[in-house]
Amino acid sequence: MNIRTMLCSTACLALMAGASTAQEVTVLGWGGDYARSQIEAYHKPFTEETGIRVISVDADNPATPLKAMVEAGNVTVDVAVIEYADAVRLCDEGLLEVIDTSILEPAPDGTPAEDDFLPGTLTECMVGTDVFSTIFAYDATRFPDNPPTTIADFFDTDNFPGKRGVRRNAKATLEMALMADGVPAEEVYDLLETQEGVERAFAKLDTIKGDIVWWEAGAQPPQLLADGEVAMTIAWNGRIFNAAVGEGKPFEIVWDGQVYEPEGLAIPVGAPNMEEALQFVAFATRAESLARAAEWISYGPTRRSAAPLVGVFQVDGETEMGPNLPTSEENMTNALASSYEFWVDRDAELNERFNAWLLAN
Amino acid sequence: MVRAGHDDGFVVFDHVQKSYDGETLVVKDLDLSIGKGEFLTMLGPSGSGKTTCLMMLAGFETATHGDIRLAGRPINHIPPHRRGIGMVFQNYALFPHMTVGENLSFPLEVRRMSRSDREAKVMRALDMVQMGQFVNRRPAQLSGGQQQRIALARALVFEPELVLMDEPLGALDKQLREHMQFEIKHLHDRLGVTVVYVTHDQGEALTMSDRIAVFNDGRIQQLAPPQVLYERPDNSFVAQFIGENNRLEGVVEQLGPDRCTVRLTNGEIIDAAPVNVRGAGERTVISIRPERVEFMPERLPPGAHTLEAEVLEFIYMGDMFRTRLRVAGSDNFVIKSRNSAGQARLRPGETLRIGWLAEDCRALDAA
Amino acid sequence: MSDIPIGPTATARQQRLETADGTPLKSALARASRRQKLRALALVAPLALFIIVTFVLPIGQMLLRSVNNTQFSDNMPALVQWFAENPPGIDPDEAAFAALVSDLRNGAAQRTVGSVGTRINYEVPGTRSLFTATARRAADLEPPYREALLEVNSDWAREDIWAAMRGASQAYTANFYLAAVDRKRDLDGNIVQSDPQNRVYVQLFLRTFMLSGVITLICLLLGFPVAHLLATLPLRKSNLLMILVLLPFWTSLLVRTTSWIVLLQGQGVVNNVLVALGVIGDDGRLALMYNQAGTIIAMTHVLLPFMILPLYSVMKTIPPSYARAARSLGATSWTTFRRIYLPQTIPGIGAGSILVFILAMGYYITPALVGGATGQLISNQIAFHMQNSLNWSLAAALAALLLGAVLLLYWVYDRLVGIDNMKLG
User: Fold this and answer.
1) Which of B4, B26, C236, C271 is 20 to 30 A removed from B70 (C-alpha atoms)?
2) Is B161 on the interface with C (CB under 8 A)?
């Protein structure tokens, strides 16, 4: 290619780009493997089908910049990937657009979208795309004969010696403590509403307080396991899956007592490309798209019809994804759906309580 | 090269050598003896080794070889704070966070002197340099000259027998410098301390010193009282370094015990006193001070040789006239004459004959 | 003197000097210097604008947010008016409940009730869902509203909720500051301590000051000799040393923090070496990470250059002749250091210490990763309220207290050492 044609084609591209400025949509995601799964399953096929360019940007937690943008009246993103609790909270504060479920496509067999989505994964302002789960995992080499199988085992340092990794956060930690103490999943939040329930959860945590290595970032628990710093750790299931399957680490997930939570797509009030944003949400939440995303990261699809469509892990091309998703049936036997109502009410109070508990050595 | 090693000296350098890098010697085999109460100046261009000698004496540098003795005892291994030597630094080194009084009190405090003794001594030292009313000022609030006096007082307040001064007047303007020269000299006379003074200013050295050691290239070139140094330099470096000097090159024509004749490069012949020439036919540089050149040949004794000269430039300098001449092929021959009544003022282009007394002109090595 | 004309014109001239062409000298001078001033202003304008937009405005906004919260007052106009008309002490009557219902209906329609609930939830935990759930049914409620609301949820009779709503009806409130120092208002509006199990911020502030102080002290002890070496070594060696000092700046904070984890954790390099050497047993591994020790070690490393550089820049200007003078005056090397060198480095010590202390107080990534439970700082709580609980008013109040502490520190420093006696570089 000589210089002149190159210059010309650059100019032509620039012209085309200029002409199609409206044909783009900006998606604010979480970065890392999670964003990769969405880029592969949503962004690329969407651009292929519609010609609309998808600009991917990342944030630690997209809810934070989203709140700032809408309050400042300077919204630069069209779609954001946010957690369930944040979606409900921001929706109540009027910072998110209400998404009419009629834009969502029906399942391949014709089931309407509203019936196809798992309960609780469709909210006023958020269309759920996947379910992630807080589980605990252990290093199989540390427990060769008698591996832990229940959440109670996590709190049993007599029979399962070793340090424990726990997220330095009240959310999910308190629920798991109660379940380990024998509270059935469906009673956990009712109990936590009461003073006795909170005391009981902290009392359970007290039993392993001296053995806990606290973590903050999601990347830490697999590292703690790999370094031998802890024998078991509470973690997000996707991170453990990546370490076990992607890097061949001897990590096993215990699904008993998992606390799962949906996350999904939301549109901020004042999104610059509203039309394209809705189009993108509808496309990304098709059963096929959701199933494809689950082939890139072990987060379960939110539509029932997507489950049978999930194939093998795209990174290694061989691991069946089905059993590794929080939503698969055998993993849901003792599972708790994280309650946003509870946490938006109690977040501040229990956080203070939790930190006071941490301070009291 | 002159060796002046009195064994009974108050300060003695005995075959001292100093090297910083192990390859070159900064001070080459130095022998020097300084008498008690003497004011000795180390004079030389920068890099000649004079400051290094001072630093070795103060204890901030160690001699690579040889002994330094103070009052008869070797001090090579005595740390600086136990040598009891006062020192005045080029930039005074007054402690900026202390008042004048505290600065002076410091050497007394570290000697654990009582408070009342300290106060008395500090005031006495300040009065000595007429700075008594500045006791509570900070150094930054004083002029350069005032700081200089304080530095002097501080170096003397603990009554050391030896005071070292490292270009102490370098930062002052000319007038103040000349004033301080006399003041330091008077202090020295009054207190009777031994002073070793380092400078590159030959005027300062000539004004103040009992003896001057001229340093070059790590060696003492000449050690002598100012008058001797000026009037009878031992070699062409000293002649050139001290005072203004005219140089003419030539070959020794005839050599007598106290006078010789020299044939200059243009063939003219002139008289000189032989200093370090050894025989006829040897190449030499003759050296004559500008103020000793006589341009009225009739005033010279009969038989004196004269040279032809052409006036190139006449400069009026107030108390003096300075005239630049072309002599024996050199364009830089300068003569000085006093601006006295009836003194001749030469005009450029004029030609004349000049000459001098043989004892004023010195035939030196051709280096 | 006689040739100077004496008259009215002369006196006028004397009072008002004029230039050759008759314009008053003062205005001529002003005009001449105005252009210069404008040009100077134009040069600094971009920076000034940048600082105002990116620094002054956000900080101002943050300070405002810590005392001003309109989430309730803007969205509950009818109830706000009832509170305004009825002084404290009057129990809510039917009119109050009617106003509440009308506001909840509006809130449901405008989708603002979440904000309202969030605001009251700050004061009375667990009440957010009371608002959102009631709002969903507000449209169907019939008078008498008091009974209707109590039927929906009996909590609507709770005094503390009504007291919280009355408080929140004022946009300006000090309650976030109270919360930030573990205080709250009781039903009568008196300021009381929070419940013991919820007291956390005061202790965290104290720990933050304590840890920052320890880190500053360690940085000073480690950095002082290094800075002295830097200032006295020959240029080539000091350049190399300077590169080593600045090396941490070339790697990202996360990488550095992670390397400390690798080094110091229970199964880390340091412990493994100690076990291999037999200094400690395999079951006696030192806890160097995920506690205060981890925070102190990692932050000291991160902040050390901020101590060294100001120290270095001050030490470089201290000529060696001071030390020599002191030695020649009879001081030992220790006395020389203590009485002569150290006092002259105080501007550097002050600048470095203040810099390190302030930076340490604001650090949160490093303590978050290596601090475990005991190495957390107040900034981790600010981050929590910024990112997780989204209670930005409380985050702002905590941040403002931190800012206040920094300003207080400056003031104390100014009183003790003098702020002009500080040299940053």
Assistant:
1) B26
2) no
